[in-house]
Amino acid sequence: MSQPEETLTQDGIGRPDDLERLWTPHRMAYIRGENKPSDASSGECPFCRIPRGDDADGLIVHRGEHSFVVLNLYPYAPGHLMVCPYRHIADYTQTTPEEMVEIGELTKRAMTVLRSRSGAEGFNIGMNQGHLAGAGIAAHLHQHVVPRWAGDQNFMPVIGRTKTVPQLLGDTRALLAEAWDTA
């Protein structure tokens, strides 16, 4: 482990605080709102750009006919997936019957795959509709599939204001993509 960092007191003298630091510099892009569309246009939207590229680069786990499954770049927990329609729509009520059914089917499949590969004991599943409801990217509909385990987040987010992710996102994507048709 690293040495304790020094903190500055009012008199400018540094004193060790005996706390360890878990550095997560990748979170700064999320905090600054980088890659968020500035409006509802599909040209700026990351959920519109991602499927135009390579699956591994875009962290796509599976592609359906109307929707795709992608690993969250800023996960709440390891294996945090999102199910997104290809079409740039903001609200669940705008889905076609085919999109609605496929989003549901891909969500069920995501749960099965996550259980088989990670032993997930529970899930948080949901859509945040609009900025006021907590949607990070409100302009493009996406459903979160967040696997959970007993004690998975313990004290870290509450006291340490830190979330731990024990595996590289690319490795997680490869594991889940490989299991998609077999789990």
Relevant terms:
7 strands, HIT family, subunit A, single chain, 28% helix, 5-stranded antiparallel beta sheet, alpha+beta, 183 residues
What is the CATH architecture annotation? 2-Layer Sandwich
What is the CATH first-level class name? Alpha Beta
How many individual domains? 1
Give the H and E element order: EEHHHEEEHEEHH
- Give the amount of beta strand, in percent: 15-25%
Indicate the CATH topology: HIT family, subunit A
Q: Note the main sheet.
A: 5 strands, antiparallel
Spans of 5+ residues with little confidence (pLDDT < 50)?
Answer: 1-6
Strand order, sheet with most strands = 3-4-5-7-6
Fourth-tier CATH superfamily name: HIT-like
Question: How does this structure look, described?
Answer:
This protein is of the alpha+beta class and 183 residues long. It has a single domain, classed as HIT-like (HIT family, subunit A, 2-Layer Sandwich), CATH 3.30.428.10. It contains 6 helices and 7 strands; from the N terminus they run E-E-H-H-H-E-E-E-H-E-E-H-H. The protein has helices spanning 27-32, 46-49, 55-58, 97-118, 156-159, 169-179, and strands spanning 6-8, 14-16, 60-63, 67-71, 81-85, 122-126, 143-148. It has a 5-stranded antiparallel β-sheet. A two-stranded antiparallel ribbon has the order 1-2. The N and C termini lie far apart (38 Å).
